Amino acid sequence: MPTRRTVLKTGLAAAGSSAFTAAALTPTLLRRSEPATTTAAATTTAKFTTPMPIPPVLTPYSTSGGIDRYRITTQPAQAEILPGIMSDVLTYGGHFPGPVIRARSGRPVKVLHTNNTDMGTSVHLHGASVTPANDGSPMDPIEPGQSRLYTYPNNQPHASLWFHDHVHHMESEHVYRGLSGTYLLTDDIEAALPLPAGQYDIPISLRDADIDDTGRLNYTMLDFPHRTTLLANGRAYPYLQVAARKYRLRLLNNSNLRFFKLRLADGSDMIQIGSDGGLLPAPHPTDTIALSPAERADIVIDFARYPVGTQLVLENTLLNGGPADSLGQVLRFDIVRQETDPSTIPATLRTLPPLPQPTVQRTVVLSLEETGLPDAKGTINGKVYDPDRIDTKIRYGASEVWTVTNPNRFSPHNLHLHLIQFRILERNGQPPTPAESGLKDTVAVQPGETVKLQATFDTYKGTYLYHCHLLDHSAMGMMAQYKVS
Is 344 domain-assigned? Predict the structure, then answer.
């Protein structure tokens, strides 16, 4: 489990409230030259021998006054990541990964988070429109033994959101060890559609880990080559029994650094119906789903096309030089029964409003020093994160176009904006693909790429973050603040 000693050993100790340096962090360039290795667990774990857990949906302890109220305790626990072996993890309410909150647009949710760990925590509802006091500031932790009430007004359209730790210097390790959960927000538009629902609507959190055959979950900053065991909902290489009918699968890339490129082993189509900010305008048949860390993809797979008894593997084709036997397979779908299926996928899912005329153009440069030196830093527009500095001032109600570039030769990045959902205008001068045609809060930017996005800041005033959501990079300083006023 992370402790103050762990922080010091991994080079994440606080460097003062006004600045952060990445001393003692191993830069990506050093890791890039190392051969990818496989942990003992990745080579010895038998695949598809244990069922994939379905995260529990929380029941509010109160619904009075039109507000759903929850209590969640952040606590250490043990989880069976490898078959028959227990691992020490951090959890929300004892669940690895965390539980599901189902919310409704226009109906507020209040969550009382109690911190029963030995370190400060801060809870960020990723993709949500909330006031600064409820955004989970990295510099405003819940101290050990204390509680914090977060209020989510849900004054936004439906979206597949998630919540995770965001405390400064430790967000990377805390999320790696398990502090993440799912928040599914629906509205009348989504609820009226005949999509798969109930037990056929399943959140799946995908990630990698460095875990040995004793169950020890090892964490070292930027240690991408050794995180070669893949997990689905907290289990290594599980199976999911399904009926021969359509299922809605809400995929989240919960990794710190790993990008996924997912396909069905037989190459057949999946239907992408949504991304970070809810449903796409129209269904998108595709044989590949690409996800950078923190991105979501809402897909439908119709298992009716397979006979009962079929076993179908979800593969990952983005190995980055790693071992195919451990990184190439994620989970297996076992078609075990016939069932009637009343669900359908409409040709139109939603109508997005036209974008307003932009008032401001900005440039955002995400960069990681690729020097091979131990004090390499991550920067935005050449600056390391300073919680006492406002990097961007935005007029309330403004609609801005941000041109986001990644000048690095080797290191991929992505950009996450707190508070708002945005629209992608261009990728490398080309219109967005159907997969990126909806509302987004996180966008991948590969080395040498340029992405243009448009964001409208018309919800709340105050100070918010924008940062790379490769959490090891943001912990190295690739984070900045904007102020809406």
Answer: no
Q: Looking at residue 33, what is its pLDDT?
A: 37
Same domain, 330 and 236: yes
Identify whether 343 is part of a domain. no
Sheet strands (E) in 83-200: 85-92, 100-104, 109-115, 123-126, 147-152, 159-165, 180-186
Q: Give, in order, the Cα–Cα distances in Å from 290 to each of 87, 256, 260, 454.
A: 29, 15, 6, 21
Tell me the two tokens of residue 150. Answer: 């977060």
Q: Are strands 423-427 and 479-484 parallel, antiparallel or unpaired?
A: unpaired
Is residue 110 assigned to a domain?
A: yes
With a CB cutoff of 8 Å and minimum separation 6, the contacts of 415 are: 364, 366, 404, 442, 443, 445, 451, 466, 467, 468, 469
Distance CA 236, CA 38 (A): 14
Please say whether the beta carbons of 221 and 472 come within 8 A. yes
Structure tokens at 233: 């909902």
Asked whether 425 and 432 are in contact (CB, 8 A), the reply is: yes
Tokens at residue 330, please?
Answer: 């994620």
Question: What CATH number is given to the structural domain containing 462?
Answer: 2.60.40.420
Q: What is the distance between the alpha carbons of residues 326 and 83, in angstroms, rounded to a whole number?
A: 15
What pLDDT, in 10s, does the model give residues 246-263?
Answer: 999 999 999 999 999 999
Q: Is residue 34 part of a domain?
A: no
Q: How far is CA 152 from the centre of its chain?
A: 19
Tracing tokens 């989504």 back to the chain, one arrives at 190
Count how many domains the chain has.
3
Could you say which residues of the chain have pLDDT below 70?
Answer: 1-40, 42-43, 372-374
Domain extent for 316: 198-338
Task: Please compute Rg for the chain using Cα positions.
Answer: 21
Give the integer Cα–Cα distance in Å for 350 and 347: 10
Single-letter residue type at 190: E
Placement of tokens 């990079």 in the chain: 473
CB under 8 Å to 16, separation ≥6 — which residues? none
E strands, 97-245, in order:
100-104, 109-115, 123-126, 147-152, 159-165, 180-186, 201-211, 217-218, 229-232, 235-236, 239-244
- Tokens 């983005």 correspond to 318
- Provide the pLDDT for residue 37: 54
Statement to judge: residues 480 and 355 lie in one domain: yes
